[in-house]
């Protein structure tokens, strides 16, 4: 018999703030986390803006010795995990550690460290390479270090499905608990690649916004003047537990995990199919898994990247999936404020979806001044909206045609 799974703790490190309260307040206020790049000198780049995490001090979350040898993406995930565990009031010890696991999503890992080390090899030779280079590079080290820091000795893995990684990680963690392989999971997504090669690479693909003169207006999902996404960074972590485990502890429950869908487009390495068929199948799989009807979805947190093709094709996918209901369900892209966290997007957006259910407030899609062609759905433009939500869906789609949809519901016993 499948176990029910609930969200009992959340942690956030985002371009909008450090912690859930700061981030959520900025999100519902419609604030943008986008600004000029400070991580490197972006002079000469077509894109000179990003959504960077501001004011983060890793020593607030780990010993100084560890902080010095921890790459940004690992530090963000440890910080968000510590917040989530504290929020859940979940103590991990020798007795329960083997039944509590970690599953994170990350797209590119320590790309910054790769760039630094490549320059070191070229200028100073291989003997000057740090022994911490590989541990600071590999994407699964976020899950590994969370496990080490907190003593979680259950299932431990990392997902690397590009921009769907965080959502896939949460969905896989959901499955591990409901099928009895863990009692609780620390799960979510992380990314930190505001780096030279990342900005140059996505820039070469013409995927990034070049609205350098007005950064806060650069991420504009579903708007006719959208010209690409904005790279963001950070981490969103959730504590998932079996309902039985949570009730035994007297834990606060934000929401219940209801459904998980996956699909592959089988179409193109970077472009979704024009009709959105792969994304529609993914959403249908999540709805079927939840055992509900499309009419029961009260809110969708869209993938909504602010690229010309994604926003159009995701809109078509929603119309294909929901039919007449598509024009009735409110949809928002929180990437309009956080930028696109790539492998970390599904992590923060699932946290946002849980908070929507908890607070009954829908975050807006900012910068949506003039909807683009065929983008005629209710994208909650400009201003947050109060609405009671029973079932909510969040979508994440990645390069390679990999798709993930999660459904959360209001918890009732």
The CATH class of the largest domain: Alpha Beta
Give the overall pLDDT as a whole number.
97
Radius of gyration: 20 Å
What is CATH's topology name of the largest domain? Answer: Peroxisomal Thiolase, Chain A, domain 1
Q: Largest beta sheet, briefly? A: 11 strands, mixed
Q: Helix and strand succession?
A: EEHEEHHEHHHEHEHEHEHEHEHHEEEE
Number of domains: 2
Structural class determined from secondary elements: alpha/beta
Q: Which architecture of the largest domain would the CATH scheme give at its second level?
A: 3-Layer(aba) Sandwich
The fraction of residues in strands falls at 15-25%
Low-confidence stretches: none
What form results from the Cα inertia axes? globular
Name the CATH homologous superfamily of the largest domain: Thiolase/Chalcone synthase
Helix share, percent: 25-40%
Question: How many beta-strand runs?
Answer: 15
What layout of secondary structure does this protein have?
Elements: E1 5-14, E2 17-18, H1 20-28, E3 35-36, E4 49-50, H2 64-68, H3 72-88, E5 100-105, H4 111-124, H5 133-137, H6 141-150, E6 156-159, H7 165-178, E7 184-191, H8 196-204, E8 234-242, H9 243-249, E9 255-264, H10 277-290, E10 299-301, H11 308-322, E11 331-332, H12 335-338, H13 345-359, E12 361-362, E13 385-386, E14 391-398, E15 402-409
Parallel strand pairs: 5-6, 5-7, 10-11, 10-14
Antiparallel strand pairs: 1-2, 1-8, 1-9, 3-4, 7-8, 9-15, 12-13, 14-15
Helix pairs in contact: 3-6, 7-13, 10-11
What does the model show?
The chain is an alpha/beta fold and 413 residues long. The chain has two domains: 5-249, Thiolase/Chalcone synthase (Peroxisomal Thiolase, Chain A, domain 1); 261-408, 3-Layer(aba) Sandwich (Peroxisomal Thiolase, Chain A, domain 1). 33% of the residues lie in helices and 19% in strands. The chain has helices at 20-28, 64-68, 72-88, 111-124, 133-137, 141-150, 165-178, 196-204, 243-249, 277-290, 308-322, 335-338, 345-359; strands spanning 5-14, 17-18, 35-36, 49-50, 100-105, 156-159, 184-191, 234-242, 255-264, 299-301, 331-332, 361-362, 385-386, 391-398, 402-409. The strands form three sheets. Strands 1, 2, 5, 6, 7, 8, 9, 10, 11, 14 and 15 form an eleven-stranded mixed sheet that branches. The protein is globular. It starts with a strand and ends with a strand. The mean pLDDT is 97.
């Amino acid at each position: 018999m499948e176990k029910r799974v609930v969200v009992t703790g959340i942690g956030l490190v985002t371009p909008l703030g450090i912690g859930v309260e700061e981030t959520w307040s900025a999100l519902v206020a419609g604030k943008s986390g986008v600004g000029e790049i400070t991580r490197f000198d972006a002079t000469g780049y077509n894109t000179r803006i990003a959504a960077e995490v501001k004011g983060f001090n890793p020593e607030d979350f780990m010993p100084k010795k560890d902080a010095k040898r921890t790459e940004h993406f690992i530090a963000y995930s440890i910080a968000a995990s510590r917040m989530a565990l504290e929020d859940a009031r979940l103590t991990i010890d020798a007795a329960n550690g083997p039944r509590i696991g970690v599953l994170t999503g990350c797209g590119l890992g320590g790309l910054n460290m790769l760039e630094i080390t490549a320059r070191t090899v070229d200028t100073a030779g291989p003997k000057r390479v740090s022994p911490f280079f590989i541990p600071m590079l590999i994407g699964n080290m976020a899950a590994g270090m969370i496990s080490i820091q907190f003593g979680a000795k259950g299932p431990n893995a990392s997902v690397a499905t590009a921009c769907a990684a965080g959502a896939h990680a949460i969905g896989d963690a959901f499955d591990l608990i409901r099928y009895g392989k863990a009692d609780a999971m620390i799960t979510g997504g992380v990314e930190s690649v505001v780096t030279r090669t990342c900005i140059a690479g996505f820039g070469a693909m013409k995927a990034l916004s070049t609205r350098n003169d007005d950064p806060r207006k650069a991420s504009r999902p579903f708007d006719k003047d959208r010209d690409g996404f904005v790279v963001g960074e950070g981490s969103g972590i959730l504590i998932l537990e079996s309902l039985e485990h949570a009730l035994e502890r007297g834990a606060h429950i934000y929401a219940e995990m209801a459904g998980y869908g996956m699909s592959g487009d089988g179409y193109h390495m970077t472009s979704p199919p024009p009709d959105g068929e792969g994304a529609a199948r993914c959403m249908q799989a999540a709805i079927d898994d939840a055992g509900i009807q499309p009419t029961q979805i009260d809110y969708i947190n869209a993938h909504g990247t602010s690229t010309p093709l994604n926003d159009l094709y995701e809109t078509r996918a929603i119309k294909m999936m929901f039919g007449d209901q598509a024009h009735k369900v409110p949809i928002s892209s929180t990437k309009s404020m956080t930028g696109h966290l790539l492998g970390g997007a599904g992590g923060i957006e699932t946290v946002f979806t849980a908070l929507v259910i908890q607070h009954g407030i829908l975050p807006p899609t900012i910068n949506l001044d003039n909807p683009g062609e065929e983008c005629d759905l209710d994208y909650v433009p400009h201003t947050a909206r109060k609405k009671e939500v029973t079932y909510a869906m969040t979508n994440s789609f990645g390069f390679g045609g990999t798709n993930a949809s999660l459904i959360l519901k209001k918890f009732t016993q």
